[in-house]
Specification:
This protein has one domain: Up-down Bundle (Na+/H+ antiporter like fold), CATH 1.20.1530.20. Helix content is 73%, strand content 0%. It has helices spanning 3-18, 20-24, 30-41, 56-75, 79-85, 87-111, 117-126, 136-140, 146-177, 186-217, 223-244, 248-262, 268-271, 275-297, 303-313, 315-324, 332-340, 346-358, 364-403, 408-411. Helix 15 packs parallel to helix 16 and helix 16 crosses helix 17. The two termini are 41 Å apart.
Length: 433
Amino acid sequence: MSEVNLLLVLIGVALFALFSGPISRGSLTPPMVFVLLGLVLSPVGLGWIELTVDNKVVHVIAEITLILVLFTDAARINLKHLWADHDVPLRLLLVGMPLTIVTGALAAKLILPELIIIEALILAVILAPTDAALGQVVVSSPRVPERIRQSLNVESGLNDGIALPVLLFVASFAMGMHGDEQGTDWVSFVAQQLILGPLTGVLVGWAGSRAINAAIDRGFLTHEFCNIYLLSLAFIAYLAADLVGGNGFIAAFSAGVATGNTLKKVNEEIYEFAESEGQLLNLIIFFVFGVALLPQVWGQVSWNIIGYALLSLTVVRVIPVFLSLAGKHMRWETSLFLGWFGPRGLASILFVLLVLEHAQIVQETLVFNTVIVTVAMSVVLHGLTALPGVSAYAAALQLCERRGDDLSSEQQAVAAMPLRLSPNLKQGNTTDD
């Protein structure tokens, strides 16, 4: 990326920041704005920036962002509260997500017959994680019961870290099928990637948190360096795991879980320690999505790809959500709301770039094109329907209340988990009044 290109990106970030208030009160979301900005500046628009998907800078930014997202999302999930209060997101994660992957793979094999089953699985796993930040108002509006908001929030915080080992496992198997030496030793893969990575991450997170607890107790650590220290733990876990042969991304996620649940003095600053830096990287990723990834599929989009993308955002997501919530006495409006607002965003973008760089599959282009189209449709559709969706769901609940229907399942009190915030929102505030 040249200096001129970087300058254009930063000018876009600065302009968005200046007008973030008015923008946030409408239907435009930060991802929508930056995808559109990237598309306008790309070769299919004004042609001011020409950036290819195989550019090393793109992959470096993607990997740094993935490390931070995995660590910070995991760090804000309190496991004690999760097991005690959040049975709905646990069902979405442990039942709904596996069903989504299986359903997504079957749909891919049916609609995209060029894919072999392992490639269909890779596509389904890449599109399994959700990104609640694409419809921020859904998880921040007080018009939505807290249990429902927190279900989407917690699910989004954990499903990328859960899906990642599955993706690595399936991608390694695909590489082995095509004769890649790296994918043939299954015992070594499981031991090094899926065991050493998490162990390293937990050790780094636990030891790092114990150290920061002691430093805070003794007054050794300043507020400014607390944030820097926590930021460094994510990358220490990643590099340490790489040194011992584990997977660094899984280590970053595991370190986040250990850190968030070992720190004694947990406060807003700790939860949001890398919020500004992380949001800047997130916006850059969506800009790269518009300027480099979308133009890559321009002119290569088939009706089959569009059909699969629509299925992925609807049936493939909604049916597993309904099945996973069976017996929870949720109203169908609630299950539909939870099913629709499972946007595909940052994790899917980062996962497909990871697969492009490290895996070798025959239908790589088809998988890439399908992911990009699905994410693009999700950015637009979930962004535009966030405010109307909240209003419609709130109205449906009010109608049920007037009829005297039982809403105890929706209104059950749960412990709050911090949100991954957009730049214009603060914890507990919303633009949806």
